[in-house]
């Protein structure tokens, strides 16, 4: 597989074409941002940990019957993926109240939800990713009603899988972001699943092993991500 021209560069990843138009290479960079990009840094090794954690969790989903864009790793911080038509919706399954849901609603930090709360945001940087409901998502033409039902079903299933896997390793999963794309009209999980896109707490505490460490100056982010990697993908340290 030959890496070609750069197709897209986001806040922390760059997407490249390959000699196969149905395959892309995604490079996880060492950049880290918070607050809609207002806070920025570069930490050598951060991309590696996120790439390895994402690969492990994509494999976990595949093993449990969830289709994703992931194919394989082609270097320590680059993965080969199926080319997707991305859906401009972010789905955030929430299991424990934290972050924006605490700021916007009358929940206390650490409040456990009796059942997962699914929040949807419109992927639109200029509008600061506003929250969506079903009617707005359909009216915008982002999805059909049938596709939205499918996305909700997949999101809840992914949540169950990740909660079990992480819980068995001593971690709580307050919330995480999912993105979706279409491969030959089939909806798949795409983007990444990493400490950049999840809240991870040591079980029974609210000690962060995620990007909140950077957002709120709670410690050294690289050390934090290394610790998360040791728990989620310990084989890379052998």
How would you concisely characterize the structure shown here?
The protein is of the alpha+beta class and 238 residues long. It has helices spanning 46-63, 100-104, 134-139, 145-167, 212-215, 221-232; strands at residues 3-9, 13-18, 23-28, 31-34, 39-42, 70-75, 78-82, 85-96, 112-122, 131-132, 171-176, 178-183, 186-190, 198-202. Helix 1 (46-63) runs parallel beside helix 6.
The helix/strand class is alpha+beta
Order of helices and strands: EEEEEHEEEHEEHHEEEEHH
User: Can you give the helix content as a percent range?
Assistant: 25-40%
Number of strands: 14
* Backbone CA Rg: 17 Å
CATH class of the largest domain: Alpha Beta
- Give the helix tally: 6
Spatial strand order of the main sheet: 1-2-3-7-6
Unreliable stretches (pLDDT < 50, length at least 5) are: none
What is the number of independent domains?
2
CATH topology of the largest domain: D-amino Acid Aminotransferase, Chain A, domain 1
Average pLDDT, to the nearest integer?
97
N-C termini distance: 27 Å
Beta-strand portion reads: 35-45%
* Structural shape: globular
CATH A-level architecture of the largest domain: 2-Layer Sandwich
Write the layout of secondary structure elements.
Blueprint: E1 3-9, E2 13-18, E3 23-28, E4 31-34, E5 39-42, H1 46-63, E6 70-75, E7 78-82, E8 85-96, H2 100-104, E9 112-122, E10 131-132, H3 134-139, H4 145-167, E11 171-176, E12 178-183, E13 186-190, E14 198-202, H5 212-215, H6 221-232
Antiparallel strand pairs: 1-2, 2-3, 3-7, 4-5, 6-7, 8-9, 8-12, 9-10, 11-14, 12-13
Helix pairs in contact: 1-6
